[in-house]
Amino acid sequence: MTESSSSEPRASSQIAGTAAFSKFMHLLQLVADHPDPLTIPELSKLSGYPRPTVYRTVAALLAEGLLEEGAMTGKLALGPRLIVLASRSWSRSELRNSFSEDLKHLRDITGETVHLAILNGHQMAYIEKIESPRAVQMSSRIGTSVPLHSTSVGKAFMAAMSEPECERLLKELPDHFPAYTANTLINKEALRSHLVVTRQRGWSIDDEEQEPGICCYGAAILGRSGQPIAAVSLSTLRFRHPEDVMDAFIRPLLETCHAISQRIAHTPLPLGSIAL
């Protein structure tokens, strides 16, 4: 009798927890699958849940960054935390493992060091490094976090974001940035201007901004929605910089990132059918 009665609350609690999680996932899926952002009344109608239930669930999802709400429209879209979680899942599987041959090929045809990085809070984290075969090599290593404002991976990632997302991230950064060299961008206005140019041409540059004597070119890897989930950089030493950088570095870099992005677009995502 005692065991039976004590086990019933546990079973009931587990069922309640499962039901709540199912509601979370169902609402997230509806927002992800719908072609347009949804209001809470629209989401309630589509889900079949009572409006108070949808309000409570959406409030929890907003608080955790899994959904975001338009300030003027009140319409819901997938939140930045969900996108970061998905990009980390990609980094551990498809991006680092499935596409390592693409990155090695980029290293082989350029002869320079290749990095793969993902957004990690307000920094970029290197998750792969393919060393140059040349005598002088880079001091960076896998697992290192680097700034957004002074690296080609950081600027490539930010420039590939939607302008509202990029501006939201910029507002979270400090007003003044650390200066690592005389070339480092040291404030938001300088970075904004740099990102406009980067967005227009499709690739970024770290022109001895992070380390003296090292120049890096970056481009973003895009998910299914066209938003960035990672960035690739090609790093070279200033003294061996080629005359024709477009043919030697930038074109191969862009071709590699495009090939990886296309492969992602045709590969099932680890998070089910939520399409990045």
Characteristic terms for this protein:
disordered N terminus, 276 residues, alpha+beta, two-stranded antiparallel sheet, disordered C terminus
Let me know the number of strands: 8
Quote the distance from N terminus to C terminus: 51 Å
Tell me the radius of gyration: 22 Å
Order of helices and strands: HHHEEHHEEEHHHEEEH
User: How many helices?
Assistant: 9
What does this structure look like?
- By secondary structure, the protein is α+β, with helices and mostly antiparallel strands.
- The strands form 2 sheets. Strands 5-4-3-8-7-6 form a 6-stranded antiparallel sheet. A two-stranded antiparallel sheet has the order 1-2.
- The chain is 50% helix and 17% strand.
- The longest helix has 32 residues, at 2-33.
- The protein is elongated and about 65 Å long.
Give the helices and strands, then pairings.
Elements: H1 2-33, H2 40-47, H3 51-63, E1 67-69, E2 76-78, H4 80-98, H5 100-110, E3 113-120, E4 123-130, E5 145-147, H6 152-160, H7 163-172, H8 188-201, E6 204-207, E7 214-222, E8 228-237, H9 245-265
Antiparallel strand pairs: 1-2, 3-4, 3-8, 4-5, 6-7, 7-8
Helix pairs in contact: 1-3, 2-3, 5-9, 6-8
